[in-house]
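Pipeline run #58 for the internal structure catalog. This entry was flagged by the ingest filter as a single-chain record with no existing model, so it goes straight to prediction. Upstream metadata was stripped on purpose; only the residue string is passed forward. Reviewer on rotation: M.T. Logging verbosity set to normal.
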Amino acid sequence: MRGGKPAGERLKTARKRSASSARWLSRQLADPYVKQAKAAGWRSRAAFKLIELDEKFGLIKGARRVVDLGIAPGGWSQVIRKQNPKAAVVGIDLLPTDPIEGVTIFQMDFMADEAPAALTEALDGPPDLVISDMAANTVGHKQTDHLRTMGLVETAAHFAIQNLAPGGAFVAKVLAGGTDTDLLALLKQHFASVKHAKPPASRKDSSEWYVIAQGFKGEGGKVARTPLGLPRRPGLDPELGFCWRGCGPTKRCQRQPSPGSSPGRRRVRGRDCG
């Protein structure tokens, strides 16, 4: 051992390794999420981002059909299959992705004209959840990289709006600066709740955030309703009695607001909710 590092973790300064490659390798070796992902059998550390988003927003449990945009290497679809084995999952990516049991995978460009039809036909019904961890290949120019990635996000959002089942959800990666004004307005028009979040597994020095849109209102922006005929609210589901904000579907709110009132803040098992 030299310099406090085991020999197995010592970086090789070979001539063929660039400085950026060495920095990346050093970060990977020191990243606890990388080690946890390997131990748990996840294909990437990104799996923990979806796990953490699901813990806060309750995205996966009730989904019957899921579309994974930018599926490679497959960590997010792995999480879906493990936490909701009955869900039908279809994914798409320009990069090759090793098979995942129970997941239909298309290796094609999501921006291709035929891509949306291929995804919806494979599901045999409208999806309840559309997830996107897509990001455009960077060119090193911050503004250009942001615009290229936001172009993907906008296309993904339009796909979700055109195909989601009422009450469905859309989750997508965005870069620093958040969701563009026009796109944010579009999501707020079609979803009951639109929020931004940066899960703990997202590196602090990363510019990525996630936009979480829940409670899809259906075609024409009409409010989706429960079987009881009550409108689904962004805070509290009047049918099931659980809070959509942070608590998730397994932790019920102790106090329900009266009809027409604001959900406000509620305490659930010792912590704030709302």
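catalog note: The domain at 46-221 is CATH 3.40.50.150 (Rossmann fold).
catalog note: Helices lie at 19-30, 32-40, 46-57, 75-83, 115-123, 142-163, 181-190.
status: ready for reviewer M.T.
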